[in-house]
Design goal:
The protein contains seven helices and 30 strands. A hairpin with a 4-residue loop joins strand 8 and strand 9. The chain has 418 residues and is mainly beta. It binds 2-acetamido-2-deoxy-beta-D-glucopyranose (NAG) (6 copies).
């Protein structure tokens, strides 16, 4: 974790496109994703919990944080006022933080909700890219983050001691993509479904995103409008989230029975599986089960929690798009379709007592959950998602496996030309 970092860095005039690997932590329950970048002075390789709904990047600066260049944001500064006004639920308070990170108490530090944390400035480093390979590390010397233990709270703890911060990619002026974007309002993520190789995030450019064997995934996007939290009318915890409107869900081309309205749908990298409000969940499970029976798949009597429909693995044929189960189509409000094949809808569960099943990786969100649909990590893997904060639209590729590539196929070979 604390490898010294000896490379030279400089700001390249030509390449202001940046990337960061995204690692899936498979062996954790539930699994989660981290973004790998460099923080502190001198720069240290750091894994931050990938959080699409968080407004700020947060680091627990009480743990292994020893940066020669970090400094607090003074309370009575225009930056502090701007940071605070970025919070809809704001605090204008300033406090004396009893912190050890600057060797003494810091008077009048800028305090931020929602994490009730304070703001600091430090260095961040990201690799440049030409869309094909990895370049040098570009230094952002004035990166604004907050000091909080939010990541540990989200990870509930003990087994993830090395993850002491989160990367906030939310809809906020001070999110990580917003701060590193100078020429474009676009960033993209591609979560890897492969245990052996990472996925990738792209910042400050909209194309090309090359994956071996030479597929530009930016050419395979469909677009749907992003709805902001005020319009989505959700609670304050989801203030910085990205929402889209879903009109209907089809299973093997058959629409499931839903009330006639648009469902507020949030994209989440924190939820490992897709979560559906009870009425949608019930309708989807019924249609999916019926359709699977038509495909000669018989659900087992005792599904593995938290899932509701599972099949014996040796009953299910496998294809390059994953287990051969009914295809799910999510129809967006503008009628574009997000296709979900077995690799993204199903979860393999193998246990010691000989249990080996595929379960539908969708869970029941209960009655009246604040977002009708939360699209979680399992459904996002090997799909490219592109967020354009300027035009407020989401680009999604559906499974890149359809184009014979995947998120783990970025060529991370380093070229020092840029
Ligand atoms: C912090 O870093 C400085 C300079 O790199 C070093 O001298 C010091 O021992 C470090 N302190 C801790 C607590 O690691
Ligand atoms: C805060 O800043 C304003 C304008 O910059 C100044 O007039 C005021 O005296 C400052 N207040 C404190 C407590 O420093
Ligand atoms: C604002 O945040 C505080 C502390 O997190 C919370 O208790 C309060 O309910 C929030 N207010 C609104 C209007 O969301
Ligand atoms: C759904 O609502 C729209 C407008 O409110 C209406 O035109 C349409 O016929 C409705 N569809 C169904 C299946 O009820
Ligand atoms: C599913 O199948 C059952 C049993 O054949 C049938 O009663 C039910 O109406 C079907 N549901 C849907 C949504 O097709
Ligand atoms: C990855 O990129 C490097 C540098 O451009 C190139 O030499 C190498 O052949 C590429 N790897 C593959 C598998 O194409």
């Amino acid at each position: 974790m604390s490898l010294p970092f000896f490379l030279l860095f400089f700001i390249s005039p030509c390449f202001s496109s940046f990337i960061a690997p995204i690692t899936k932590h498979y062996h954790q329950t539930p699994p989660f994703y981290t973004l790998q970048l460099y923080l502190q002075t001198p720069l240290q390789p750091t894994h931050l919990l990938l959080h699409l709904n968080a407004p700020f990047t947060a680091i627990d600066c009480t743990r292994n944080y020893n940066s020669t260049n970090s400094r607090p944001v003074p309370c009575n500064s225009s930056l502090c006022r701007s940071l605070q006004s970025n919070n809809l639920n704001t605090s204008s308070s300033c406090i004396n933080i009893p912190t050890t990170i600057w060797n003494n108490k810091v008077p009048n530090t800028c305090v931020l909700l929602p994490h009730n944390s304070f703001a600091l400035i430090d260095s961040l480093g990201l690799h440049t890219t030409n869309g094909y390979n990895l370049g040098r590390v570009n230094l952002f010397p004035e990166f604004i983050l907050t000091c909080s233990n939010e990541a540990s709270k989200l990870l509930h703890g003990s087994s993830n001691k090395e993850i002491t911060g989160l990367a906030g990619l939310g809809f906020s002026k001070y999110s990580l993509p917003a701060q590193v974007s100078t020429t474009s309002s676009v960033f993209a993520i591609c979560l890897s479904g492969s245990p052996s190789a990472p996925g990738i995030a792209f910042f400050n450019f909209e194309k090309p995103y090359y994956f071996l064997p030479g597929i530009d995934a930016s050419e395979h996007l469909n677009y749907t409008p992003i709805i902001t939290s005020e319009l989505a009318n959700t609670n304050s915890l989801e203030e910085y989230a990205y929402f889209v409107g879903v009109k209907s869900i089809n299973i093997n081309e058959k629409p499931i029975t839903l009330t006639n309205k648009t469902f507020v749908t949030r994209i989440s990298t924190i939820d490992p599986y897709t979560v559906l409000e009870r009425s949608i969940f019930t309708a989807l499970i019924e249609t999916f089960t019926n359709e699977s029976i038509e495909m000669k798949l018989e659900p087992i009597d005792k599904p593995v929690k938290p899932f509701s429909v599972c099949y014996e693995a040796d009953e299910v044929a496998e294809t390059y798009l994953g287990p051969n189960v009914p295809k799910i189509e999510v129809v967006m409000e503008n009628d574009v379709i997000w296709s979900v094949f077995g690799k993204n809808s199903m979860v393999r569960i193998i246990e010691e007592e000989g249990l080996d099943v595929w379960c539908l990786g969708i869970v029941d969100g209960g009655v009246g959950s604040s977002s009708s649909i939360v699209i979680g990590g399992n459904q996002l893997e090997d799909n490219l998602l592109q967020f354009d904060l300027g035009t407020k639209r989401l680009g999604f590729s559906s499974s890149l496996m359809q184009h014979k590539t995947m998120c783990a196929n970025f060529n991370f070979s380093t070229i020092n030309m840029f």
